[in-house]
């Protein structure tokens, strides 16, 4: 990124706009963090630092504190923290194309205190963005040797950007208003909103490990209360968060992503994650429904995620290495790592259940059609094999008589009539035989009426 001598530290207009854009979103950051957010292809943080210093000379940026970080080799580095002045906030609003009143404060107090939490939020945002590094041309000073060409930047995994789609330290009023949140409200560390894409509205909580699982679980409950809050507009109820952000209609509330940043052994991290999941289960787990069927009538059903908050969690190390779209997310209520898209999908919700029901109905209809075709085929076979009854001429089908024992036999009606006639003849014969036996038994007096 070539420089210019128009300003003392040689920053370009592009560099200054990148600094304003970064600080307009995160409010406080070191030059190294600004580089990671905006221009990771530069050789070092010098380009971003020069932009900060030139903007400081213009009264748009100031250094209000310092912070320390530990290098991989164990060295402790102290760096300046940069933030915006009120004039810088207005300039950043213009670069980000935002209304100045939406820019929030300057975070001067956070910078003065070392901005530990804000620094982690910035690191998490850089991991979400995965800004592609662009090849840069270092400034060649007068009389200096021409440096060797820089190696091609390494490819990075896809990120969630641009930075203008992100906001930090966003008040979510459980009571009160966005401008004046009331008691019990929550402040989202980050919010991702890209309404003109298919990407989800995403709230992000950064956990530094300084608070216990009960406190983090209680925050999830407050997110749910905020997301479930509605207000009256134009005589009808509308969900409060939709007055600020747009998102596709779905059964569940917008998702909450929790990024755990404290380094600890995997067993301890899993224990912490699972404890938060256990304590917040009521907020994210949808009750099971059998779809109107009795439990023993149909095992298939769905989870009703209406008014629940999908919670996905990961660790900063995975987010930095694999990017936000990688298989790094654990969706509370499931097991195993998933991609962002899979983690946010609800394969067991009512919509998926409806799809399965439609498939079942289609399968049932196909089976009924198959059975009808078999029935028609059998009917045609029987019609082809039918013979006329020799007595009445009615069509006689193969299953009505046994061709092996009654070839050319009668129809069932004629056979039944013949059987009835034979039975009546048998009964008459038996009566005549009985009378003959009685006459022989009475001898010549057999003609007298019986005295019994």
Please give the structural blueprint.
Blueprint lengths: L12 H14 L1 E2 L1 H8 L7 H12 L3 E10 L5 E9 L1 H11 L11 H5 L3 H14 L36 E7 L13 E7 L9 E6 L5 H15 L2 E4 L2 E4 L16 E5 L5 H14 L1 H4 L3 E2 L12 E2 L7 E5 H7 L7 E2 L8 H5 L5 H36 L1 E2 L6 E2 L15 H31 L10
Parallel strand pairs: 6-9, 9-12
Antiparallel strand pairs: 1-3, 2-3, 4-5, 5-6, 7-8, 10-11, 12-13, 14-15
Helix pairs in contact: 1-3, 1-4, 2-3, 6-10, 7-8
Features:
452 residues; 6-stranded mixed beta sheet; 3-stranded antiparallel beta sheet; 13 helices; alpha+beta; single chain
Write structural notes for this entry.
The protein is of the alpha+beta class. Helix content is 39%, strand content 15%. It contains 13 helices and 15 strands. The strands form five sheets. The protein has a six-stranded mixed sheet with strand order 4-5-6-9-12-13. Strands 1-3-2 form a three-stranded antiparallel sheet. A two-stranded antiparallel sheet has the order 7-8. A hairpin with a 2-residue loop joins strand 7 and strand 8. Helix 2 packs across helix 3 and helix 6 packs parallel to helix 10. It is elongated, with a radius of gyration of 42 Å. It starts with 12 loop residues before the first helix and ends in a 10-residue tail after the last helix.
